[in-house]
Fold Short-chain dehydrogenase.
Amino acid sequence: MLQVDLTGKTALITGATGQLGRVMARTLAECGANIIIHYHGNETKANELKQEIESIGRQSLIVRADVTQFDDIIQMKNLIAEHFDHVDIVVANAVVQYEWKSVLDQSLEDYASQINTCVMQSVYLAKTFVPAMIERKAGRFIGINTECSMQNAPGQSAYVAGKRGMDGVYRVLAKEIGEHQITVNQIAPGWTISENDRNNHTEVSEDYNKTVPLKRRGTDQEIANVVAFVASDLASFITGAYIPVSGGNVMPAI
């Protein structure tokens, strides 16, 4: 029987205290991985998540960093090195949240925030953690993209700009480091049901569901399941992929 087995692996998840991040952290831990919990502002949630992960017998470390600052990423790496030999799996999940507006109304600062947290975060993480993966001839570099990259709907311009720029970085990186048996992939969630939705009873959106072939929104656990698969040896021959987890709402063409 096939199983997603991450036993002995160490995974760094940026934005691990967020709605999707903490489900990914729990899921990778349940598959056997030790978890490095990155956060920027929510230290309380980081500590709660650490306790959860350690309660199932995994090692866990909390690291704080501004992922838009290269020096912060380097300091994060140095702290990690005090506790773990290396990082096997990097999941770039952190992103700045902001109010969506039209191109004419969106602030320049919002465009910069998306470029910094989508494109530059990925570049900083690659420069910091990929060289050691090259030495070991193994590693998983995973980015959380979005179905919006294919939708280009009104109001999405800053978000789409950041995520489409990120897409270019990942595709090139996959070709550059593939010979070292490191995979580079993107998971692209649709509009996902999270803990907030469950608490507020907002899981159903009729207008959105009509556009989705499966006629529903996906869940945070369904996203995390795909991340775990891509992080595992079961996905050892998948790289350079943009994988929508959107119930068919977007479908990359050939």
About this structure: The chain is about 45% helix and 15% strand. The beta strands are 10-13, 34-39, 60-64, 89-92, 139-144, 182-189, 242-245. The two ends are 32 Å apart (CA to CA). Residues 10-245 form a domain with the Rossmann fold fold (CATH 3.40.50.720).
